[in-house]
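Page 37, continued from 36.
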């Protein structure tokens, strides 16, 4: 039986993946601050990197790419018990989340029936997008203003979370390195002892994370991000836990001479869902075949 996430743009069903994506987001957030001279202030270096990352995420919406996710279940001795993988074609739909079309399971093509299900799921998501667009076109001035106000409030909440994390973290410029011939700054951040986070996201996640980010000297672009939990993270009404020692690694690549996009993500995690079922896993995601999307773009699996 196929899960709903295989037919939609929803996040992967890999256990812990949602948690480690949040951790990654926080690792990036913790390293931002008011302006200063980049060559001397690690906060300013990453502030500029985050500003560039906002542009990168916008440009990413115009690209198709292939995403392969592999998850390996581990035993108590960290030996691999089982491995499974899924490969997706990620397709921009315009004005909304991209469609993630499942094209392979364990590196084998889908059955004809599964391909039909994927095609139906894409049509459904496209229909829903068109309906949202039609409703937006019929908005009254009052309805439009209400929608824009809600968007602005969401931006303000995000900024409050960022400010809370910035205020609560100690940052250090710990060195310089070369990555693929590019000189980069290496910056570390961890919670400041005694600081009390006041936003929910920061209190739940950031207070129990530390991170390291590598940023190019030319252009201030994040090229590698590492995060690690330094305490158990509990969320979802105490129904889910990510254990201390969970690690995340992310690498970025320069695409089409205009944008930095994810190249590889890895994680090693122990977690528990519903306080009953525990998971001890590692996994990786690879992003390939980035192409600027047009209406003539060929999508794998289309007939």
């Amino acid at each position: 039986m196929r899960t709903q996430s295989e037919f939609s743009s929803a996040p992967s069903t890999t256990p812990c993946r949602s948690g480690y994506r949040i951790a990654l987001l926080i690792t990036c957030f913790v390293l931002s601050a008011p302006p200063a001279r980049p060559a001397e202030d690690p906060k300013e270096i990453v502030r500029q990197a985050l500003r560039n990352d906002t542009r990168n995420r916008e440009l990413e919406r115009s690209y198709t790419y292939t995403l392969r996710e592999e998850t390996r279940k581990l035993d108590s001795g960290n030996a691999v018990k089982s491995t499974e993988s899924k490969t997706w074609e990620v397709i921009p739909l315009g004005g909304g989340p991209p469609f993630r079309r499942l094209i392979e399971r364990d590196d084998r093509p889908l059955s004809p029936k599964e391909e039909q299900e994927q095609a139906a799921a894409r049509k459904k998501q496209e229909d829903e997008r068109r309906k949202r667009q039609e409703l937006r076109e019929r908005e009254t001035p009052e309805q439009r203003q209400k929608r824009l106000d809600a968007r602005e409030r969401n931006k303000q909440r995000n900024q409050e979370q960022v400010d809370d994390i910035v205020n609560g973290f100690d940052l250090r410029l710990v060195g310089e390195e070369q990555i693929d011939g590019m000189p980069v700054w290496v910056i570390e951040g961890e919670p400041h002892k005694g600081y009390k986070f006041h936003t929910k996201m920061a209190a739940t996640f950031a207070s129990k994370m530390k991170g390291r980010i590598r940023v190019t000297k030319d252009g201030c672009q994040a090229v590698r991000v590492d995060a690690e939990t330094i305490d158990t993270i509990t969320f979802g009404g105490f129904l889910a836990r990510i254990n201390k020692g969970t690690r995340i690694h992310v690498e970025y690549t320069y695409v089409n001479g205009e944008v930095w996009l994810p190249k590889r993500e890895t994680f090693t995690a122990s977690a528990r869902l519903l306080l009953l079922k525990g998971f001890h896993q590692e996994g990786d995601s690879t992003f390939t075949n980035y192409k600027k999307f047009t209406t003539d773009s060929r999508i794998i699996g289309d007939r």
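DSSP finds five helices and 13 strands in the chain. Flag for discussion at group meeting. The helical segments are 17-29, 42-60, 112-137, 141-167, 200-204.
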